[in-house]
Amino acid sequence: MKIVVLDGRALNPGDLSWQGFEEYGEVVVYDRTSYTDKQEIIERIGNAEAILTNKTPIDEAVLAAVPQLKYIGVVATGYNVVDTEAARKRGIPVTNIPAYGTDAVAQSTFALLLEIANQVGLHNQSVHQGEWQKSIDFTYWKSPLMELRGKTLGLIGFGEIAQAVAKIAHAFNMNVIYWNHRPKESQAEWLRQVSLEELYQQADIISLHVPQTSETEKMINQDAIQQMKDGVILLNTARGGLLDEEAVAKALDEEKIYAAGVDVVSKEPMTEDNPLLKAKNCFITPHIAWAPLETRTRLMGIAVDNFAAFLAGKEKNVVNKRG
């Protein structure tokens, strides 16, 4: 069986191996494939019966041009790059990788929050530029510093990642509240479920942990921001489209939002005209919450298991099941 990896570099820039897939057939790996050139996508799939994609889109037109295709493996949790219904109609299972990066994304969420609270990068740079050596005082700080104890963290969404973030927040002696689109009770007495409106009103820090859907797209907009506390901190390690970036940038510049920490933006790679780039006190990382070696190793292992289960006639992590 021929297996084509359309955009392998994100998962494996050279520190992992495709050996797990090579045990099942010929593997052709492309580091990158155009997101917009459908002809290139079709040509690269060629006569392959199985493909792996991360962000390369597989739509109806592509599927129609490769009738021999039997399997699509998305090497990520989100699978909106694939027209899953069109694949289902053709009998092609689409698999994804659920819950592989829970701890890494929770860690990254707090890395952004701690950078905002403690400004480690700013002060490290200051010391290396000689400012401490020239200081007449034994200490100085170049921006306000913040203690997290007693602050209220509001989690929008309460899946596995949000629950991991909640545990870290509890260890920092923070108050934790959450909203989920379907009520989801927690057994922990230190966690409190609230309405979305209550969360906006009560949280000192808001962290997003919901998928991007038609219902959640731009949910953090001008109306939502106006309901929030003055000086709120906003964190987004979920999907960039959850934010109305113009509204968030405006709120940052007006200091309605004290700071934002984002690992994702609405269009990736980030464009030069993204309003968050010039907004005050906005901390941005290039979609790396999922990227530790340990996390990607786990992802690769699940991707191989998904494919092996498909070959054995046992569905595993299929997102477009029949019926």
UniProtKB/TrEMBL annotation:
<comment type="similarity">
    <text>Belongs to the D-isomer specific 2-hydroxyacid dehydrogenase family.</text>
</comment>
<dbReference type="InterPro" id="IPR029753">
    <property type="entry name" value="D-isomer_DH_CS"/>
</dbReference>
<feature type="domain" description="D-isomer specific 2-hydroxyacid dehydrogenase catalytic">
    <location>
        <begin position="20"/>
        <end position="320"/>
    </location>
</feature>
<dbReference type="Pfam" id="PF02826">
    <property type="entry name" value="2-Hacid_dh_C"/>
</dbReference>
<dbReference type="Pfam" id="PF00389">
    <property type="entry name" value="2-Hacid_dh"/>
</dbReference>
<protein>
    <submittedName>
        <fullName>D-2-hydroxyacid dehydrogenase</fullName>
    </submittedName>
</protein>
<keyword id="KW-0560">Oxidoreductase</keyword>
<dbReference type="InterPro" id="IPR006139">
    <property type="entry name" value="D-isomer_2_OHA_DH_cat_dom"/>
</dbReference>
<dbReference type="InterPro" id="IPR006140">
    <property type="entry name" value="D-isomer_DH_NAD-bd"/>
</dbReference>
<dbReference type="InterPro" id="IPR050418">
    <property type="entry name" value="D-iso_2-hydroxyacid_DH_PdxB"/>
</dbReference>
<keyword id="KW-0520">NAD</keyword>
<feature type="domain" description="D-isomer specific 2-hydroxyacid dehydrogenase NAD-binding">
    <location>
        <begin position="110"/>
        <end position="289"/>
    </location>
</feature>
<dbReference type="InterPro" id="IPR036291">
    <property type="entry name" value="NAD(P)-bd_dom_sf"/>
</dbReference>
